[in-house]
Automatic annotation (TrEMBL):
Species whose genome carries this gene: Afipia massiliensis
Catalysed reaction, written as an equation: alpha-D-glucose 1-phosphate + UTP + H(+) = UDP-alpha-D-glucose + diphosphate
Alphabetized GO MF terms: UTP:glucose-1-phosphate uridylyltransferase activity
Protein family (similarity comment): Belongs to the UDPGP type 2 family.
Name the UniProt record assigns to this protein: UTP--glucose-1-phosphate uridylyltransferase
Claim: Transferase is one of the keywords in the record: yes
GO biological processes: UDP-alpha-D-glucose metabolic process
Assigned EC number: 2.7.7.9
Superkingdom to which the source organism belongs: Bacteria
InterPro entries named among the record's database cross-references: GalU_uridylyltTrfase_bac/arc, NTP_transferase_dom, Nucleotide-diphossugar_trans
Gene: galU
Alphabetical UniProt keywords: Nucleotidyltransferase, Transferase
Length: 290
């Protein structure tokens, strides 16, 4: 399975983080010193993604700037001989032509956001990564998915990353039903977006990492609104599952739901504790609160 392109839906309004997100996209909130979106792009690049497709919206221009070459800043750093800082910028710089930006013109839901990328993706399988979710692991979440698909001979399939959540949280997520295993994957036995606890098929939530076949766009084109009055990717996947294989994959590592404040703060602590230059100071500081 060769996945060249990844879609990052980054048009969301970020209302849960107001006022921080009044003038700044939520995807630019930092986990330690990297914006959320940069962490998720890192994950995609580690998995071999070559082209990054951002589905943006109004007031998201700074995301585009973040992935551009800041030549004024580079000139100044060079003049001042700040080699370390130059290296930091260089490392994260996507190749020329390796990014695309398109706009979701109205907040019609995740399914609609993915559909907005159809012309840029074309007729090949692709990944979708939601920047609200950080998967902390080596190899990265997406890399694990691609490896598992290849190992199971499921290279023409659609794959969805899932993880266990407490039953009283299933209403916040897409939830899948579990069918027979195939290597590290399992066949999906249905999926439902934001179910009530009583009707959820399991406690396995969809974690914001997908590998999809291009036929999903045809389904999305006519997908009616679902949960929350939005065009849901989960509903479209359910439609495509009638004609194509769909598998779930439980990744290794911990995920952080950075769409919630506590998840975002937990991610900051976890990523900072991994850093040699920050760990001991942070630990000392945290001891004051424990
Ligand atoms: C989206 C998906 C949902 C998934 C979740 C993961 O929901 O629709 O299936 O479980 O992301 O974060 P949202 O958080 O956009 O409401």
């Amino acid at each position: 399975m060769k996945i060249r392109k990844a879609v990052f839906p980054v048009a969301g309004l970020g209302t849960r983080f107001l006022p921080a997100t009044k003038a700044m996209p939520k995807e630019m909130l930092t986990v330690v010193d990297r914006p959320l979106i940069q962490h998720v792009v890192d994950e995609a690049l580690e998995a071999g993604i070559e082209h990054l497709v951002f589905v943006t919206g109004r007031n998201k221009g700074v995301i585009e700037d973040h992935f551009d070459r800041p030549y004024e800043l580079e000139d100044t750093l060079r003049e001042r001989n700040k080699l370390k800082e130059m290296d930091i910028l260089e490392r994260d710089q996507p190749d020329a032509g390796a990014t695309s930006f398109t706009r979701q013109q109205a907040p019609l839901g995740l399914g609609h956001a993915v559909w907005c990328a159809r012309d840029i993706i074309g007729n090949e399988p692709f990944a979708v990564l939601l920047p609200d979710v950080l998967v902390k692991n080596k190899p990265s979440g997406l890399k694990q998915m691609i490896d598992a698909a290849n190992a199971a001979g499921a290279d023409k399939a659609n794959i969805i990353a899932v993880e266990e959540v407490p039953m009283d949280q299933v209403h916040m997520y897409g939830v899948v039903g579990v069918g027979p295993a195939k290597g590290d994957l399992f066949e999906l036995d249905g999926m439902v977006e934001k179910p009530k606890k009583e009707s959820a098929p399991s406690n396995l939530s969809i974690t914001g990492r997908y590998i999809l076949q291009p036929e999903i766009f045809k389904v999305l084109e006519t997908q009616p609104k679902g949960a929350g009055g939005e065009i849901q990717l989960t509903d479209a996947m359910l439609g495509l599952a009638k004609s194509q294989p769909f598998y779930g994959f439980k990744f290794k590592g911990k995920s952080y739901d950075c769409g919630s404040k506590s998840g975002f703060l937990a991610a900051n602590i976890a990523y900072a504790m991994d850093r040699e230059d920050l760990r001991s100071d942070l630990l000392m500081e945290m001891k004051k609160y424990i």
